[in-house]
Specification:
With about 260 residues, the chain is α+β, with helices and mostly antiparallel strands. It contains 5 helices and 13 strands. It has an 8-stranded antiparallel sheet with strand order 11-10-9-8-7-6-13-12, with no helix packed on it. Strands 2-1-3-4-5 form a 5-stranded mixed sheet. α1 packs across α3. It is elongated and about 80 Å long.
């Protein structure tokens, strides 16, 4: 029992992070000749997913220990929804990935699906057919990407950001809310050389698949001056996820802002 508690505590610590915790279960196969390969395939998939900084991957030894402590008997297989949900909860995983390997006509067919532990809902699935380990390894990155494509990822852009540029005197403070609403404050200089503050709100979005950042807002001053912002460009957070650069196109002006997270 002490062993199980220590394993569950390790899973709980992982679950407290902002990243999603994923457990890749051992692949199944009804083909005797593939039994020695299925473990290697699931391990290679695990290694591929480790490269995704938005995911916390449960170690294989912890999965094996939990299954052993549960005295799990593989009668219906991991892909049975009730079993998948039970195993996932014991591992404190947000999602589990379960797969199956079969041999047809001299070709291996690998299928897997990602299951949300809380709802037991299938989030995504992927499949590939290969005739060699070389082909398996070549197709593996795309296979892994499909499996995690619909997992809810942390929204690292949400928060308060300050932006400035060495090319202009403009400074921004943007508050990006989780519901894709935003508040924007711009301090700039008018045509008379006077500093003015514009404040407004709008909406924003970010698409991780292509790093496209969008922001639309309507800003006003106390005197009624109106400025509309419509940003459409690429943005990618640095490794610390605390800053990003963004190319601003404002009429004929074009300059790059550096945003830093303040909250």
């Amino acid at each position: 029992m002490k062993k199980l508690l220590s394993i569950l505590f390790a899973g709980f610590v992982a679950a407290m992070t902002s990243a999603q915790t994923i457990a890749v279960l051992g692949f199944e196969s009804d083909c005797f000749n593939l039994e020695s390969r299925t473990a290697t395939m699931s391990d290679l998939l695990t290694d591929e997913l480790v490269n995704n900084e938005d995911l916390v991957i449960v170690e294989r030894r912890l999965i094996d220990k939990v299954l052993s402590e549960m005295d799990f008997q593989q009668t219906t297989g991991y892909t049975d929804m009730a079993t998948a949900k039970s195993v996932g909860k014991m591992l404190n995983a947000d999602c589990i990935i379960a797969g199956n390997v079969n041999m047809t006509g001299g070709k291996m067919t690998v299928t897997a699906r990602t299951i949300d532990v809380e709802t037991a809902r299938i989030l995504s699935n992927a499949n590939m057919t290969c005739v060699s380990w070389t082909e398996f390894n070549r197709k593996l990155p795309d296979f892994a990407k499909k499996l995690v494509a619909k997992i809810p990822m942390p929204n690292y852009f949400a928060g308060t950001w300050s932006g400035s540029s060495s090319e202009t005197d403009d400074t921004y403070e943007i508050v990006l809310n989780e519901n894709n609403k935003c508040n924007v404050t711009l301090i700039t200089t008018n045509e008379f050389g006077e500093q003015m503050e514009l404040i407004g709100h709008g909406s924003w979005s970010y698409e991780p698949s292509n790093n496209m950042f969008r922001l639309d807002a309507r800003l006003t001053t106390d005197l009624g001056t109106v400025k509309k912002i419509s940003w459409r460009n690429f943005a990618k957070l640095d490794k610390s996820r605390k800053s990003f650069n963004y190319l601003i196109k404002d009429g004929k002006k074009q300059y790059r802002l550096t945003f830093s997270k303040t909250e």
